[in-house]
Amino acid sequence: MDLETRQLQQLLSAKNQLPEVVLLKATTTSTNDDIREIAQKGITTGLVCSAQQTQGRGQHQRQWISPEGNIYLSTLVQTRTPLDGRLALEVALNILQIPQLQALNLQVKWPNDLYSAQGKWGGILVEPLSQHQAIVGVGINLKTPPVTDSDQPITSLEDLGLEQMGRLELISELYVAIQNAARWFDHGCYNLAGRFNHHAAWINQLVQFEHSQGLVHGRFVGISNEGAVIIETPEPQQFYQGRLRPHTTQ
Questions:
Q1: Which domains are seen in the chain, by residue range?
Q2: Where's the BPL/LPL catalytic domain (predicted)?
Q3: For the chain, which terminus, N or C, has the lower number of CB atoms within 10 Å?
Q4: What DSSP line would sit under 111-140, residue for residue?
Q5: Strand, helix or coil at 186?
Q6: Nearest-CA neighbor of 111 among 247, 15, 249, 244?
Q7: CB atoms near residue 57 (< 10 Å)
Q8: pTM of the entire predicted model
Q9: Quick one: pLDDT at residue 248?
């Protein structure tokens, strides 16, 4: 076991959150795939983190650009409540509660992006293994990637003002935040709408929402406690699946 892994284990142990398996990698194909292999061995708690991914993926199997030097981690969560889309929202909200991040004026973008007024700085991918177990993958930009093919602005915690927080400390805080999110989920996601809407990107702004039946234009007024997007068109419409974007004029 190398020194960094021991240091991370010590940080997690001090938080009473040491999983059965802790793996730190310089590069991997996908940390979600790594943690899936661990789960298939019957292990229920684990953390895999890499500085680079060669086959990272996001929602709907979109490629997740994963250049070297950022944080890409995956872990397992167990829930008593059958899994649904609210878990990803809870993960985002609990990450924003990490003490060192609270002063950065960060946002969440429905359904699974870590956002800010300057753009996206991270993302979340939840992949259920059963009704009560899921892989939670999180990618965090510590530094802004030099080149991206993203269709949205990209930023990083460094550009947003994060200072004097070690990489291992942030990894340990992210792990704790994800486990806390599972507990919030199991307790019914109390006041989910109020907590999410307080941090929501584009709240009360004109947006476009792409869903299976087409494109809706209107005002994004937040989410429901069930996790649905609410768009005023002018009558309120709710959607559980789709893609939210700012309104653009042609």
A1: 3-197 (3.30.930.10), 202-246 (2.30.30.100)
A2: 5-186
A3: C
A4: TTEEE-TT-B-EEEEEEESSSSEEEEEEEE
A5: helix
A6: 244
A7: 18
A8: 0.93
A9: 78
